[in-house]
Amino acid sequence: MTSNRRRKQQAQAKGLTDAELQLTELLGQVLDLLRWNQVLGYSNQYLLHEKLGVDEEERRRVMKAAAGAVEADGRVQDWGRRLQEIESSLRAVHERMTGERRAARSLDPAAPGDDAAEAAGD
After folding, report:
1. Mean pLDDT over residues 35-41, rounded?
2. What would the pLDDT profile of 15-34 be if each residue is shown by its tens digit?
3. Largest Cα–Cα distance of the chain, in whole Å?
């Protein structure tokens, strides 16, 4: 596993925060798997219906069983945990940025977003 320091360096090299890098990597993995799942799903539906002549009720049963297997897949659960970690990290970054902006506004009354300065200019 990559160290936190190395991940931060990789993120900075791409102009991203660590959380943004994690998010883009996670989305890439999800899209890759989604593409293959679509290929497999369409091919299975074709085979069940066109080649094997499986009736609608039997196909529904197969889909229900497959959905249960997907729910048990650890990757989906891992992605959910990773997404929660990324959301938490992004929230912390946002709070730090918002706090820094508030501090800058209090030092410069003419800073953008200062309602009193904008009202005085009207």
Report:
1. 89
2. 888 888 888 898 899 899 88
3. 77
Instruction: Output the six-digit token pair for 108.
Output: 């410069």
**DSSP H or E stretch at residue 88:** helix 74-107
Q: What are phi and psi of 70, to 5 degrees?
A: -65, -40
Chain-centroid distance of CA 47 in Å reads: 33
d(CA 56, CA 59) in angstroms, rounded, equals 5
Q: Name the residue with higher pLDDT: 98 or 36.
A: 36
- State how far the Cα of 77 lies from the Cα of 106, in Å rounded to an integer: 44
Nearest to 45 by CA among 63, 69, 29: 63
87 within 8 A of 79, measured Cβ to Cβ? no
Q: What is the mean pLDDT of the chain?
A: 78
